[in-house]
Fold:
Amino acid sequence: MSALLEVAGLHKRFGGGRTLLGAVRPEVRAVDDVSFTLARGETLGLVGETGSGKSTLGRLVLRLVEPSEGRIRFDGQDVSSAARGALRALRPKMQMVFQDPYGSLDPRMTAGQIVAEPLTAHGIARAEAAERARALLSSVGLRPAMAARYPHEFSGGQRQRVGIARAIALDPALVVLDEPVSALDVSVQAQILNLLAEIQSRSGVAYLFISHDLGVVRHVSDRVAVMYLGRIVEIGPRDALYRSPRHPYTVSLLSAVPSADPVRERARPRIRPIGEIGSAAALPGGCRFHPRCPRARVVAASGADTVEACGTRLPRACVHDDPAPVPTCTDGHLAACHFHDLD
Amino acid sequence: MSVAFELRGLTAAVPGEKGAVRLVEEVSLEVRAGETLAVVGESGSGKTVTFVSALGLLPKPGRVIAGEALLDGVDLLSLEPEALRRMRGARIGMVFQDPLTGLNPVFRVGDQIGEVLRAHRSIGRREMRERAVELLARVQIPDPSRRVDDYPHQFSGGMRQRVLIAMAIALGPRVLIADEPTTALDVTVQAQVLDLLGELRDAEGMAMVLITHDLGVVARQADRVAVMYAGRVVETGTVEEVFRAPRHPYTISLFRSIPDIEAPAGTQLAAIAGSPPDPARRPAGCAFAPRCFAATEQAGCRVERPVLRGERHLAACHRLGEPGVAA
Structure:
């Protein structure tokens, strides 16, 4: 079966060139050569820290942001080169849910109008759209009578339900969810996660689930991709990736997430990356993780061919060659690390 | 170890349309030297308001209507404003969530740390700078004698939070209150900052209050925990006790609703229905009753406010210890 979504060699560069006064503007490689696929009905979790490019990638996929280079195929059609009309025809099939339900819902429209809008925009008569909107609101766990309320009259969790109802109104095949539960309280998060799972099992929609929360991503995903400074550094089936992460960045990310079990939590070894995420405006050469990589330092100390870098000696490969994602021992599990087979 | 900071029956309110709205009610907590007390709760649970009130920082027209906040036995709430101001900073350090708002963008980092020192004792410019470098080194900022002259925007988020921690510990406080100190930070940086806070607490013998919504952070960092819901402490005990065998239905439900990083994958999350009540519209009886799996009519859950019961590990639930009300 062919994938619902195929992304190949995708790039997004911001800035660059010169300002009016002639100063050189740094070029930000927000998304830097990303490839992945997503099957129908599947959930791909996309994790990464601030500045990793995960949100930009989500918007590129829907062409809410224009890619600089690369190809996006959705349902057999080329999204990246689609003309305005063709893109408009694709839109109903690809939807987005944002983190902040405040910012993404028009405060002057009622919940019913918000959910009905995509329906009328695609030619459904007003009366029928209003009827369907009420049904959609009830399918996301809101009372149909709430259709008359405005966004500020809802709680955060209820507003996110309205956002979800709107996104699924046209029965999309793909929904990009950008931090959909990050703004919600813990006790409300679970309601929304359960609702998303229920919608998926009912409709077979595929999710690209973007989040910084590794616990949430593990809960919802079939496969997981880890982004670091614009690149997917590791991707694989959920259990393989969480159980035996191959990229040292994933290893330190997982080791940094505190578990809500004090006994386990205190017994765990900690692998700390050095310093903080760099900037996509000044990408290091070679492997983009080498300035922070604990594994590179271990490898260097064990007698590898090294060069002087970052105030120490690091493996030559890490400093000079940008690693491509390569298969590891598990099917479909790739890692972009020169030493992915080491622990 | 001696109790460094203690709240007794703290109640704070704001005027509302139908009389005073109690933001926090009868909060009693204590934290000892060298210990970390985590205060956990969702937004609106009163965890921040509790400490803001205790330090006399609750914005008007809010005010404390009952209770005491004792620092080494002295009630902060009985002090004159000037005496209280001197206590804050000198004896109690504070670190807040957003490292950007705590720093002034137009002043050098070293001068901002220096200001904290100068506000409390007379000190020359040269000594001020030396002390600032020392403090930056204590919070593990690399190359402190150069970074002391940098501006806040030249620091990353994690480094800014370190600067704020340096300011908070500048005068050697007895108590450090950290309100969501790592919430705005990425997870790898969060871990680094939590490590630092733990090291400083141990090195200085400070009492630490860690306000957070993240149970993982509590598991990692705290010795004791107080769980707040709708303005009250509903459960308190050692981290081991509360996490191993939570006793309040809210705490029990909270644990079930979190996708844990190490729990078996694909487990169904037990969501808590509804959302926390608005302070002006808290239900009669137990505030959690409308969302509680254990609430019954016989137990009087909808009628009477439950009080904290138990020894060491306390919970405020009418059905405490009954069958069916345990993790």
Notes: Chain A has two domains: 40-58+92-243, 244-343. The longest strand of chain A covers residues 27-38. The radius of gyration of chain A is 22 Å.
